[in-house]
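Sample intake sheet
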Amino acid sequence: MRLAGFLLFVVGVTVASCFAARAVTPEPAVKGALPTPGERLGAWWDAAGIPFSGGMLLVVMGGVLARRKPKAGSAKTTGSAEEAPGPVAVLAQITEELASLPADAVPANAVGIRDRLEDILERDVPAFLAHRLELIDRMGLGKFAEMISLFASMERNAARAWSALTDEVLDEVPQCLERAKNAGSSARELLERGLGVEKASA
């Protein structure tokens, strides 16, 4: 529920900001005169008011969903949760795993690469995303959004590489892996900088 709320919030901010910044030049009531502020506002509202309002509605809905507390008993409170690795360690593990994949020898290692990508996508990515609310609090929404955009690019390209390996379209794998590695490294750099750490701890 919180992930859905965060996604709605991000989409709403994107939509609202795009239409809020839309430049509209109205026709002034008096020919040759400059448009009045009221005329500018009215022209902007006619062109962008409805989608802007929709974006703001998504922001509000996303904020409400993201802040909704889980029902009692829905979350596990065992000691294992406290021992789970932090976000810096998880992302470091992802980037190091990606870096170790032999993109220049895909045909000979196709099954092994696919299995390791599957572990990243099914185990490590959800483990990192479980820290998203903590990271928003610690980094701020702006820095977090920049970092998570790169993280999403890493995840997307890793998934494309996995799909290409599954479908045996091996020519696409090296470029997908390269993009995943670059995006993951950039996300890790922004994460560590945003949290004020110089080197990820194991």
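Comment: The helical segments are 2-20, 37-67, 79-82, 87-99, 106-129, 132-139, 141-166, 173-195. Residues 87-201 form one domain.
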